[in-house]
Specification:
It is a single chain. The chain is mainly alpha-helical. It has one domain. Helix content is about 75%, strand content about 0%. The chain is elongated and about 50 Å long. The protein starts with a helix and ends with a helix.
């Protein structure tokens, strides 16, 4: 059981070690955000659960088919949700590959 976010982040990065997994997460999260904005703009914000469906469909496909692991969302939903956006930010700022390398080097 992981008890702090720093340890969780390293676990999360290991679970997203393949570039295609990270790209699919990025696409799903982006589409979920765009859908949320569109629903709010249209005044149909009450359909917001669809944003999660869109976002997680891409992510879970990546885990089951590409990484061949279980999504961290199942066990750590809040930290996983936060980490999706952290990973997205790291990808946008060009730091994610270095983060993956850092975590890989620190494997026990």
């Amino acid at each position: 059981m992981i008890s702090n976010y720093d340890d969780f982040w390293d676990f999360y990065v290991r679970e997203h070690s393949k570039p295609l997994t990270r790209i699919l997460h990025f696409i799903g999260t982006s589409l979920g955000l765009v859908l949320l904005a569109w629903l709010i703009w249209r005044g149909t914000w009450y359909y917001f659960p669809l944003c999660f469906v869109v976002g997680y469909a891409f992510a879970w496909f990546a885990h089951f088919v590409i990484e061949k692991n279980r999504p961290a969302t199942f066990k750590y939903p809040v930290w996983s949700f936060i980490s999706d956006y952290k990973m997205m930010w790291y990808m946008l700022t060009g730091r994610m590959r270095k983060e993956v390398e850092r975590v890989e080097r620190s494997k026990p």
